[in-house]
Amino acid sequence: KTELGIAKEYEIREKLKSRFGFEFKGYLKDNIELDAVGFDKGTYHIVEIKWRNKATSYKDVINFMEKTKVFDPVKLYFISRSGFTKQAESLLNEKNIEVIKV
């Protein structure tokens, strides 16, 4: 990750803290890297951040779901600077993954 990317993730985690009322941190363990993880009232809240100049793809969403399957119970969220492909949007809706606008 670039310094700019790391700074952007930090900025977004601060916005998430303001919005949700609990802290979000980066997560790296057992080769699983997550951009923002919070824990509140017995539930993990996990946010994937794609801050790039192309739409987030179906495969990006699948990869995120795969990385988070060990967390239970969990609520998943996605932030994408450049939006989503149609297939990605369908999968997000089907799997009840909330899109957050920042």
List the helices and strands and how they pair.
Elements: H1 3-20, E1 24-29, E2 32-40, E3 43-50, H2 58-68, E4 74-80, H3 86-94, E5 98-99
Parallel strand pairs: 3-4, 4-5
Antiparallel strand pairs: 1-2, 2-3
Compact description:
This protein is an alpha/beta fold and 102 residues long.
In order across it, which strands form the biggest sheet? 1-2-3-4-5
CATH topology: Trna Endonuclease, Chain: A, domain 1
Number of strands: 5
Q: How can the largest sheet be summarized?
A: 5 strands, mixed
> How far apart lie the N and C ends?
20 Å
Please, how many domains? 1
Total number of helices: 3
State mean pLDDT (0 to 100 scale). 96
Question: Radius of gyration in whole Å, from Cα?
Answer: 13 Å
Please tag this protein with its features.
31% strand, globular, 37% helix, alpha/beta, 102 residues, Trna Endonuclease, Chain: A, domain 1
How would you characterize the overall build of this protein?
The chain is of the alpha/beta class. It is built from three helices and five strands, in the order αβββαβαβ. The chain has helices at 3-20, 58-68, 86-94; strands at residues 24-29, 32-40, 43-50, 74-80, 98-99. Helix 2 (58-68) runs parallel beside helix 3 (86-94). The longest helix is centred in the N-terminal third of the chain and has 18 residues, at 3-20. The radius of gyration is 13 Å and the shape is globular. The protein starts with a helix and ends with a strand. The mean pLDDT is 96.
